[in-house]
Structure formats: C-alpha cells, structure tokens
Design brief:
Number of helices: 7
CATH class: Alpha Beta
Helix content: 10-25%
Mean pLDDT: 86
Structural class: alpha+beta
CATH topology: lpxc deacetylase, domain 1
Strand content: 25-35%
CATH architecture: 2-Layer Sandwich
Shape: globular
Radius of gyration: 19 Å
Low-confidence stretches: 83-87, 164-175, 316-337
Largest sheet: 7 strands, mixed
Order of helices and strands: EEEEEEEEHEHEEEEEHEHEHEHH
Distance between the termini: 37 Å
CATH superfamily: lpxc deacetylase, domain 2
Number of strands: 17
Length: 337
C-alpha cells in the first residue's frame, strides 16, 4: 500500500504525563447531567485511556480513531466491538471528549488515564482553558521514552463528497463546500476557513503554526458557541441540555448574549480550531503536517482521523516503532509512571 503517513520517533523529545492526579467536576454540555473526571499519570507508550468508573464492570476506552462512536455536534467515544456497524453507539460511550483532548495536546501530555463518572466530560467554561491551566499548575512529568509523531508524506484529502451521499439518505452537499487536507510539514499548522450566515460569525479564516507555547494564548480560551434560534430544536433532540451562558457563547440574530463578550475577536473560528485539534488527537499521536480545513465539523474530522489511522495500521516498522498504539490491558497497568 502506498505510504501517506507513518509513525516515527522524535529523538530530541520525550513523552510526558501529568505529575499529579487532578479532579474536575461540572455539567455535561449536552446531557445536562453532573459528571466528574480524575486525570491520572500513566506509563510511557500507554497513550490516553478513558475508564467509565461509574459502570460495573468498568469500561476501558482507548482514545483511538476506531472507538469514535458519534459525531453529532460533539465527538463521543465508546468501546467498539469488532464487526460492529457504523450505527453502533459503543459500550460505555463518553460524550464531548474533544475539549479535554485538545487541552491534553496543548499541554504536551502523551499518556494519561481519565477516570470518568458519568457519560459526558464536564463542560467547564466551554473551552479547553480550565483543563490546560490545571495541567500546568499541577505539573507535567517527562518520561524516559521518545515522543512519537505521525509524519505525513503525501497529501491526505477528504471532501464533502467522501462523507455525504443521497443514496444513503443523507443531505446532499456541494462537493467543494466542505474539505480537509493534511499536507507534509515540519511542524503542526492549521489553516481554517469558516462561513456562517450571521453578522458576527460570518466568513473568516485563521492560520497558525501551533505548539504548546502558543496554544494557551491563541486557542485554549475559545468557547463553544450556539445560536439562540436553535436551542429549542436541539433540546427536543436531547442536545445542549446543559448549555448556558456559563459554558457557551450564545448568539441571537445580531449579537452575543454573554455579558463578558468575546475573548478573541474571532473566538468562533478559534473554537473550531480547538475542536479540530482535539479530534485529531484521537489518532493517538501528534501530527507533523499542515492541516487545511474548510467549514469542517466533528464528522469529517473523525473520518480524516480514521483514514490516517488506516495508513498507520497498514504500514510496517519504521525506525523500530510499530505503527500501532500500545495495548492497555487494564487501567491500573497504565497508571503511575
């Protein structure tokens, strides 16, 4: 199979985990239910592992493209049984993981165990800021193992035509309307184009080479957003039940309802970038590449991640690193480096 991406060790960088156990508690953005999580240290090579501690027996879910089970207005993961169809929700499903995953990426955390009490990650303030700042204030621990990256060799392209099909009963979309491509690059860059029919959101673009140093200032504080006119419809469909001015930007026809206003003049597009980073981290690794995204959401983001993971799983050993995530037989084995 032609190689588009491969897993490779970075000789000058080391994997990291959290130095201490951290606790977060709050309301789920979509479920409206109270939930809590504990973020714990993990061994090198174990990656990010979620554990539904409120279920008996506990359900262990790897942060992995193959475990993405829903992408309706958020990204959810669950343990997917082999042979399960795309309509399967996944055992022990955990909703809205993207903000936490984005914060883990920004803080440089490669390995952690996330114990979850509930079926959704707490929304906190609707951004990645609370998680990110807590990680740094508590401390990041460097591990004795080289960091692994996904290195992109050739452009990996997805367009709306790869997602939507009238034959499947889904909405037909202009072929050029939605797209995402990853090009080879030395670092990690995102160019994002957004277009909403609203005077404040409207059209815009964002372009930045992103790393752990500028993630906090430029990305982490951007909050999720929604439109007041859509609230009733969403709630009737079991979504945004926990949404409020405390954890989301809410817009009416002409303005932002939040008293504090915007944290960035282009906060909306920066939150789309925040989501994209979190979704991409479900590949299990950081990516070396330039991501060019146009009007994307969790659905096409997740399909790109699955496509990249497919290239990795089909590749052979490179520099002594096998392109597969380390197995985690149980949560205890992954903890406490």
């Amino acid at each position: 199979m032609e190689k588009f991406a491969i897993l490779k060790e970075e000789k000058d960088e080391f994997q990291c985990t959290v130095a201490n156990i951290l606790f977060f508690k709050g309301i789920g953005l979509h479920t409206g239910k109270e939930s809590s999580i504990a973020v714990k240290p993990a061994k090198a090579g174990s990656g990010i592992t979620f554990v539904r501690k409120d279920l008996k027996p506990n359900v262990i879910i790897k942060a992995d493209a193959g475990n993405i089970c829903s992408t309706t207005l958020r990204t959810s993961i669950g343990r997917i049984d082999k042979g399960a169809g795309s309509g399967k929700s996944g055992a022990g499903c955990i909703s809205t993981v993207e903000h936490l995953m984005s914060a883990l990426w920004g803080a440089g955390i490669d390995n952690a165990v996330i114990e979850v009490y509930g079926d959704e990650i707490p929304a906190m303030d609707g951004s990645a800021r609370v998680f990110y700042e807590a990680f740094y204030e508590s401390g990041i621990k460097e591990l004795n193992a080289n960091r692994r990256y996904i290195e992109v060799f050739k452009p990996i392209i997805l367009k709306s035509g790869d997602i939507y099909s009238e034959s499947a009963g889904e909405k037909s979309v202009n072929e050029d309307d939605v797209s995402i491509t990853v090009y080879p690059a030395n670092g990690f860059e995102i160019s994002y184009i957004m277009d909403f029919n609203h005077p404040l959101v409207s059209s815009g673009s964002f372009d930045l080479k992103i790393d752990g140093f500028n993630f906090h200032k430029e990305i982490s504080k951007a909050r999720t957003f929604g439109f007041l006119k859509d609230v009733e419809y969403l709630k009737k469909n079991g979504l945004a039940l926990g949404g409020s001015l405390d954890n989301a930007l809410v817009l009416d026809e002409t303005s932002v309802l939040n008293k504090e206003g915007l944290r960035y003049k282009d906060e909306f597009i920066r939150h789309k970038v925040l989501d994209l980073i979190g979704d991409l981290y479900l590949s299990g690794y950081r990516i070396k590449g330039r991501v060019v995204a146009k009007k994307t959401g969790h659905d096409i983001n997740s399909k790109l991640v699955k496509k990249i993971s497919g290239f990795l799983n089909d590749s052979k050993l490179k520099d002594g690193v096998q392109a597969e995530q380390a197995a985690v037989p149980n949560a205890v084995a992954a903890q406490f480096a």
